[in-house]
Amino acid sequence: MSAEERSKRVAVGIDLGTTFSVVAYCDGKSPPRVLKNSLGKSTTPSVVCFKGDEVLVGQDAKDEQACGELNAASFFKRRMGDANFTFAVGSREYSATELSTFLLKKLKEDAERELGRTITDAVVTVPAYFNNLQRRATLDAARAAGLNPLRALNEPTAAALAFGVRANDSNAGKKYLVYDLGGGTFDVSIIAIDRKEIRVLATDGDHLLGGKDWDDRLLTHVAERFRDETGLDLFEDVESANEALVRAERAKIELSAREETKITASSRREKVAVSVSRELFENLSSDLFERTATLCESTLRSCVPALTWKDLEGVLLVGGSTRMPAVKRFMEAKSGRPVLSGANVDEAVAIGAAIQAAVDLEAAEPRYSLESGSEYLLETPRLADVCSHTLGMIAENDDRSKYVNSAILNKNAPIPARETKRHKLNVGNAENPELEVYLLQGEQERPLDNVILGKHVFSGFERTGAKEIQVDVTYSYDRDGVVGVEAAQVGSSRNLEKRVETVPDDMSWTDGVPKELTKSVSANLSIVFAVDVSGSMEGKPVEKARKAFLSFVDQFDLETTKIGVIRFADKNDVVLRPTRSRIEIERAASKIQNAPWTVGSGTSAIPFDDAYRCFTNTRDGLRDSFAKSPSFGELRSRGVGALSGNDRERRFVVVLTDGQWLFQSKAVKKAKSLAEHGIDVVAIGFGGANKKFLREISTMDEGSLYTDLSRLEESFSSIAQTIKGNGLKRV
Ligand code: AMP
Known about the structure:
Elements: H1 3-6, E1 11-16, E2 20-25, E3 33-34, E4 44-45, E5 47-51, E6 54-57, H2 59-66, E7 72-74, E8 87-89, E9 92-94, H3 96-115, E10 121-126, H4 132-144, E11 148-154, H5 155-162, E12 175-181, E13 186-193, E14 197-206, H6 211-230, H7 238-254, E15 260-267, E16 270-277, H8 278-284, H9 286-301, E17 314-318, H10 325-335, E18 340-341, H11 348-364, H12 375-378, E19 382-386, E20 391-396, E21 403-409, E22 414-415, E23 417-426, E24 435-441, E25 451-459, E26 468-477, E27 483-489, E28 497-501, E29 525-532, H13 540-554, E30 561-568, E31 572-579, H14 582-593, H15 608-616, H16 633-638, E32 650-657, H17 664-676, E33 679-685, H18 691-697, E34 704-706, H19 712-725
Parallel strand pairs: 1-10, 10-11, 12-17, 14-19, 17-18, 29-30, 29-32, 32-33, 33-34
Antiparallel strand pairs: 1-2, 2-3, 2-4, 5-6, 5-7, 8-9, 12-13, 13-14, 15-16, 19-22, 20-21, 20-24, 23-26, 24-25, 25-28, 26-27, 30-31
Helix pairs in contact: 3-4, 5-11, 6-7, 13-14, 13-19
């Protein structure tokens, strides 16, 4: 029996993808290999389908989905760590972690059958920009599936490993760009080779950009042709739209090998075959390629010192969507060099994860002597990874005029990382002062424009009589991207006590002025514009909506008004949290028009929970009814200087919809709940919108308006006037 067989632990690498997942194995001696699933395929669709008591995972689930089964969940990776996302099946609701657990269990089972051994450990990959919560949710899913997660490895890092870019004298100094375009995500990383290690210099990504967007472009084109020829809206028939989407993806893949293909769409006994050439397809999607290039360039610029395409040795292509010939052409044109790509671009991440799994297991449980040969592992370069987000805390700025995000650990610092920053704590005469550290993740100066990861309260300070205490706050970031917070009083040997508290619902005080200065704050407005982007809005309606929204914005003074944007159809997408930045608002407006068309039976998502989260920066959504209104007692007890009722921000959700909502009574309850929180709903509808429903979700007298497309701008304008003049009365 070999040492490998004697060991009880077996580790695999798992690429837990948005559309597909892959498992690979490396025994440490021979090159890694992908483990085939029970159907003999190397990729398993990341789809889970609930059918009666049965849970189908992978291809079976994807087939059911293609037949129009609505209880099939896909793309749930995008919602990892989102406490408010659930996939409802009857009375049961599943989180993204639970859905991933079903998927991981199936991957484990299939891999065990292929390997003939029980799998105990795994390295699971995550997109480079996954935040702490998303990484944690991924590791939790692995544990729940019966796997010991060795680490969460950044996908581009895993890919680089798989390409076998070796750290040695002849490669030292070379830099590569890893371009990873998968089914639902785009990742870009810049890596630098040293004599002894590979370092990730910078990493970024767009989790709303992937092969699915290219499918959507084809689907939109087919739906347009279908409407031209039959006068019917394909999106009104969920089953047909789903079938057409599956055919669109198939056609996209065919277009990687040939110049021309056909997509058929059928609905209500009408059938239309649409011819698509590769050239047309590339034209329909050229802006998507441009978006990837823009991200590559900003990532190059974010390196220190800043890099350009010329500084690169080459570009590594990873992810199934890089099989589109245009990607290679486009990247070669940009970088001026041939790209490096393998035949199995969709296996590279899993292969890299398997290599890392073998390295980690070898470190934890050395099994091979040098004589018995661990050549493969010995050749594996050491990896340096980076923090994908800046970590900071809420602190007063120097002149104490506002709260800011005070950065402690900077984005792209190599991990594991540890950094300390000294803060002054004004304790006055308090007997038992406490320091509240709100852990922020993100690069924005305004605290609420970042993700608030948690609240840590430190107590047990030594009193010296001084009004100010100095505290060293230390952040650490481990190799899984999991964050730790510690604090120590300068000049004291006493250990501080730490407790972790939930982040309060209402964090709006961070937009106020610290302490005594609060009196001068004038009343502010905060508006979240929630726009329906279901299929029927596509084309003219959405173009008009964007224009009307922009002229609506023009009517407000952005010094005192913040504006946010949510798109919704069969799910919500917070495009922009309320902000005063005109550039960001304009960018969000363009996303209204370029919505990734979600296929769904009209509008099944309700934007009110996300609107509430936008205002309060909480992770919890609304409950249907609230016993208590928001309290500022908490703020007072913090000594922050509570805002008086008059100084409070007035908050509005302006909804624009053109169709029937699937869950109307739930939406009405949520709207009422918003009103209980002092947030008002104004509803504008046209087309298929229901006047009675608009009235019901509106929380104000005359707060609903049924209009038509040609009068959209006017209607928005009158709503803006009433909001500004506060002419609306609570219902
Ligand atoms: P990944 O998540 O890396 O497995 O990528 C899956 C994505 O790659 C899906 O959007 C597929 O449609 C896409 N894909 C796979 N093969 C091809 C191909 N030959 N041409 C274009 N796209 C492809």
